Input
Amino acid sequence: MRASSSRPYLGDPDVVGGLVRGFLAGVVDRVAEVGAGREDRGVAAMADTQACITMGDIFLGRDPACEPVGQWNRSGGMVNWMYRQLDHIYQEPEANREALVADVFAWAVRFAYEAIRAHEDDADEADLQDDLVNLADDLTRFLLGMPGHFPDRLFL
Output
């Protein structure tokens, strides 16, 4: 249940979707900057890594700017659900369940890179935009604990 707050609520699909789309836009912008020669590839990769860690902190309820969904974000509900969805990749005891959230965003970075690479010769960016929208929707659903295709992407 949502507490009364003016902060963005991590149980609201629109809020989560906005955070995910903003995250992916940052990835795409950094790829474009590297491609144009305005950014070093290593610096962009470090920025992507930091963005993954930041998103992990947000969705673990550690960012005071966002209102978490109680037990889901702060007490392991989301992490445990993610772990069960991805247990074919992350296995005990090596799994750091909290790092798993940042890892999920790192997978999203990889999927965005793959989409960009797949469409780099397309004159029309509509297919790339469709792929990125689908990625954002899949990740949003995953972060909300809703069935979707995000785990399936690991096997495509």
About this structure: The chain has a mean pLDDT of 90. The helical segments are 13-35, 41-59, 70-74, 77-85, 97-118, 126-143.
